[in-house]
Amino acid sequence: MRLLSVNLGRPKAVPYTDQPQGLTGIDKRPVEGPVRIAAPGRKGVGAGGLAGDTVCDLRHHGGDDQAVYAVAREDLDEWERELGRPLANGSFGENLTTTGLDVSDALIGERWRIGPDVVLEVTSGRIPCLTFQGHLGEKRWVRRFTEKAATGAYLRVVVPGEIRAGDPVTIVHRPEHEVTARMQFRAVTTNRELLPRLLAAGDALHPESVAQARRYLEKYGADADGRRSEPAAG
């Protein structure tokens, strides 16, 4: 398991973003040499976790719980075959492109050491948006990405430091629950009956997903398997 590339983006004016200033940092390209990585601060104020990277939409991206976005090269290769076109590292707007690591099925709370020092923790999958669709130039991309649910993973920074392409990736902690980035993604998109099961991931789960799961329970109630009960009166 290793890091194939570290990908950074600069602000780019495009017609397909809903940002008021018309800018996006989704067009990320591999860089050489070490890149500093650290927790950026709370969402809405902190941007990305990698020095030199750009996050334009602070409403939906960035912050401590989405400091880094990782995608497996194996998932990009599968999409290449399906789309019939090459996809370079960084094509999905990911900061880290990995190999040998099942990123979409990584457990929430799973921790990776990258290189000698940096430790990251999986928090959630990635929700596709129209900016992502416009960037790739594929029709129905949001729906196709959602149906496939090869979502990659957002991570928070546990131990800061420097990373670079070629660094080994080691899983140093794997929780005992079943909640993966893919499962979290499905729960908040197409299979909301899964929401209560996300709470098994505890504090490692992205706070927004915790709130969604608790709202679901308050509205419907659910047994331990996440099956919906009758709505409460009123």
Structural class of the secondary structure composition?
alpha+beta
Outline the low-pLDDT stretches.
228-234
Strand content: 15-25%
- Euclidean distance between termini CA atoms: 52 Å
Average pLDDT level:
91
The 3D shape can be described as globular
Structure characterization notes:
- The chain is of the alpha+beta class and 234 residues long.
- The chain is built from six helices and twelve strands.
- It has an eight-stranded mixed sheet with strand order 4-1-7-6-10-9-8-12. It has a two-stranded antiparallel sheet with strand order 2-3. Strands 5-11 form a two-stranded antiparallel ribbon.
- Helix 1 (73-83) links the parallel strand 6 (68-72) and strand 7.
- It is globular.
- It starts with a strand and ends in a 14-residue tail after the last helix.
- Mean pLDDT is 91; it is low at 228-234.
Structural topology:
Blueprint: E1 2-9, E2 12-13, E3 23-24, E4 28-31, E5 35-37, E6 68-72, H1 73-83, E7 96-99, E8 111-114, E9 118-124, H2 130-136, H3 141-148, E10 153-159, E11 161-163, E12 169-173, H4 181-188, H5 195-198, H6 207-220
Parallel strand pairs: 6-7
Antiparallel strand pairs: 1-4, 1-7, 2-3, 5-11, 6-10, 8-9, 8-12, 9-10
Main traits of this protein?
single chain, 234 residues, alpha+beta, 8-stranded mixed β-sheet, two-stranded antiparallel sheet, 6 helices, 12 strands, 22% helix, globular, disordered C terminus
What's a concise summary of this model?
The chain is α+β, with helices and mostly antiparallel strands and 234 residues long.
